[in-house]
Amino acid sequence: MFTRRDCVRYVGLGGAALVATPKLALAAPTPRILVRAGPFPMGTSEGEAVALAAAHGYHPSWLEGELPRRIVHLPTYAIEKYPVTNQQYAVFCAATGHLPPYAWGGPTPPAAWLDHPVAYVEHADAEAYAAWRGMRLPTEAEWEKAARGPNGFTFPWGNVFDPTACHWNVDPTAPGPGTAPVGLHPAGASPYGVEDMAGNVGEWCADPLGPSTAVVKGGCWAMTQVLNLRSASRGMSCQTNIRDRFHGFRCAKDVT
After folding, report:
1. Least reliable range by pLDDT among 10-14, 201-205, 252-256
2. Nearest to 232 by CA among 7, 53, 41, 36
């Protein structure tokens, strides 16, 4: 069972070796998906939390942050179809002098990692990139609506878990980044067409949980428990200064 506590345990495992870095081409912008104004059911009911905890061997307190299930109304906004990739983040680092992820082993990522979602970024790094793009991090409600759709699906693709619809259950001690290139699981797209919202990297949201913690959504590639891959899950939420293999992000933008 992989939880947020394991994030700390595995930090530093499998960092990239110093390798020849590719000549960096300008990264193509990620398509933005328009999510129209309207309500959606967010969170988890107390009854659902008790049943889920029992079914997956957790204590119900693990799901307390998801309670209650409520109807949330959001204005129209745009969210990126995929998480930010290493190649896109490298362009930002080159343009601004921002410190690149240490796992790259240099100023640009290994060639094999270019289309993978960027990881080893803390909350402030994600905010800085988003601001440079003229965007921002999504709120938890925006992220969850984009993942669940107006009917509040359990997973982005529906209410039944499909193990082939996302990148998960990868051995965290295996070499390499652990992540997969974005866009490899179109069957896992949400009702709005947003992809990679379960598994791959847990995604920083704008919402704080305390003075130095923030909401993270979507699980990650090392998750072995389906419970933590649900769109309502907060199981990856952690301290904002963590830079590890499991946390990445995507950007959102107000639409007037």
Report:
1. 10-14
2. 41
